[in-house]
Write a structure and sequence with these properties.
It is a single chain. The chain has 353 residues and is mainly beta. It contains five helices and 16 strands. The protein has one domain. The strands form two sheets. A ten-stranded antiparallel beta barrel has the order 3-4-8-9-11-12-13-14-15-16. It has a two-stranded antiparallel ribbon with strand order 2-10. Strand 15 and strand 16 form a beta hairpin. The longest helix is centred in the C-terminal third of the chain and has 15 residues.
Length: 353
């Protein structure tokens, strides 16, 4: 299966502007002017959770994720990645059910800013937290409890200012067109804007578990929008100039608009759509580790965006999106004059007459 190609007009500036950005080359080497090619394997995920009452387990829904292999390239302001599913690895519908999805996630990384963009459409989830016998469900021909009627859609963005861009590079670990040569970190500050929608034929909470959850947790339709600020810190530890480990954490509060429709079986009452304003939390985690040099890089990278909503009755609904990727990268020294001319033409067009 062809995974959505992420074609990005990245904000990474050409290398000849490194002096204007005042990058300290003792700490960071910028290679965005070189053609960077990557072979990678990745998996993307989308999970949501409904908080229970008391000591009962939360209800956790997951799609049947796919492992992909792909090729990618970065040059100047453009990054293109194309991934394909691996059939003999992904042949597990009998365990987790079938998930159909559109999944586009992009990281736009300049020296001074790190931005995540994501758009996902998923249909078909399995319940990872409970067994079929606990729910009283008949055999569905799938090992785990499966909801083929469950549909989810989300899109959003989060962006962080990197304050120590002179000596710290996000791109070194996550876009592979820079080299962090010495240990360094940076404070982060930014915000997020997200819309999330979920639909099902009946309550997300199985009837046998109804007593363990708040009545408003029995959602079968929900729309959530939130906006907020977040801040945090990122650090890269470098060992002998080439081995690196990067960690980043940012979180913050936000304001959420929530419209939910709940089923009636939990307490027998008929429920109208409930629209409320409420608080929410957003967390972004990035991590990467591996080997980097002037021409080659190999390493793992991980990215997670998590949003927690507080429903009107204080039941917690949370969801997360992210990806895990293994990269093998080589940077070529040969210039690409045709691509350089096209980039100059594009910049002139964006400036206008």
């Amino acid at each position: 299966m062809l995974v959505v190609a992420a074609l990005l007009m990245c904000t990474a500036l050409p290398a000849q502007k490194s002096r204007a950005l005042n990058i300290d080359t003792l700490f960071v080497k910028d290679y965005s002017h070189l053609l960077t090619m990557r072979l990678y394997s990745s998996t993307k995920f989308n999970t949501f959770r409904i908080g229970s009452n008391g000591d009962a387990r939360d209800l956790v829904f997951k799609p049947n994720n796919r492992i992909n292999i792909g090729l990618g390239a970065s040059y100047r302001r453009v990054t293109l990645n194309l991934g394909f599913g691996i059939p003999f690895i992904n042949n597990d519908d009998a365990r987790f059910g079938r998930t159909r999805y559109l999944d586009a996630q992009a990281n736009i990384l300049s020296p001074e800013r790190a931005t995540n963009l994501f758009l996902q459409v998923f249909k078909g989830y399995y319940i990872a937290s409970h067994q079929r016998s606990e729910l009283g469900w008949a055999d569905q021909g799938v090992e785990h409890p499966y909801r083929g009627d469950l549909k989810e859609f989300n899109f959003g963005a989060s962006s962080l200012r990197v304050y120590n861009s002179r000596r710290f590079s996000y791109r070194a670990a996550f876009n592979q067109d820079a080299w962090q040569r010495r240990s360094q970190g940076s404070w982060l500050l930014g915000g997020y804007l997200i819309y999330y929608r979920i639909r099902a034929d009946s309550s997300l909470v199985p009837e046998r578990l109804a007593a363990r959850f708040d009545a408003n947790a029995a959602i079968h339709k929900g729309d959530f929008g939130d906006v907020g600020v977040m801040g945090g810190y990122a650090y890269t530890f470098v060992y002998k100039e080439h081995w690196f480990a990067t960690g980043s954490l940012a979180l913050g509060p936000g304001l959420s608009v929530q419209r939910v429709v709940s089923d009636v079986f939990l307490d027998g009452a008929t429920r109208d759509p409930l629209t409320t304003l409420g608080p929410g939390w957003h967390m972004q985690v990035r991590a990467g580790a591996g080997y980097n040099s002037r021409r080659d890089q190999a390493g793992l990278s991980f990215n997670l965006e998590r949003v927690d909503y507080i429903l009107a009755t204080q039941s917690v609904f949370a969801w997360s999106v992210g990806n895990l990727r293994l990269n093998f990268v080589h940077r070529f020294t040969r210039r690409m004059p045709e691509a350089d001319r096209a980039a100059r033409w594009l910049r002139r067009g964006m400036k206008g007459p």
